Amino acid sequence: MAATPRSEARTGLKLISPTAIYVILLLAVPLATVLVFSVMMGGRANVSFPVTLDNYAKLLSNWAYSYILLKSLLVALSVTAITVVLAYPVAYFVSFHVRQERKSLWLFLITIPFWTSYIIRVSLWFVIIGRDGLLDQALMSLGILSEPLNFASYGIPAIILVLAHAYAPFAVLPIFVSLEKVDRSLLEAGQDLGESRFITFLRVTLPLSMPGVIAASLIVFIPTVGDYVTPKLVGDGKQPLIANFIETQLLKLQDFPQGSAFAVVSMLMVAVVSVGFVLWNKRFIGGQK
To answer: CA geometry: angle at 279 spanning 87 and 34, to 5°?
Structure first.
């Protein structure tokens, strides 16, 4: 007896139900809780009805809150741009200049930073660029500096440097995958027509690898916006970003409605930028066809 569409649908639901339950319990329910808390009234460790938008009004009308949002966005975009620009040559070298049998080894070496904890990597950067760290000792021993530079206390520049290093492997891998899909015959055809390697790269290789570039940008941008550890350890902890402010509101001040409203606004900000990247990718691909 042939299976009916209804029985096939039931079988499909049974297969996806464990995953669906997992998503609902661990993703949808916490997000719904944050949304509900963000429109409630409350103070220290207290939430209550009626529904209100005062939390959002307070957030958007307070310049200090808006400044933290804007600063976090600019830091994340800066880290994304720097990381992608630095990761592209590495991915290009591995894809085009490393022999096929050695590419796996190079990718293996690129993933070595993942072997250690993220907190350990950030702490090691503090050892390098902190006061009397390796950088200060090297510059002072060469006579370039007369006193410690203490670059780790430079706030936003130090945070961007550490974040760019931490998320670099995330950018290399998707760009490499995209470059591997580039048809080499197209590059040979461009050079046969008299184009230089640089012009061929601009007209062929770079456009065809843009999906990987945009994917790398999203992979770096989204977690960077919500990074908590780096601003806490680098920059003397005086440059709080979104995650640090939310932690202060929820855990220290225990103002759950205000902290939840800030979390919702930050998620919307990330969603808007991410959708912009996706639409740019679709438009870019559509323009190539």
So the answer is: 90
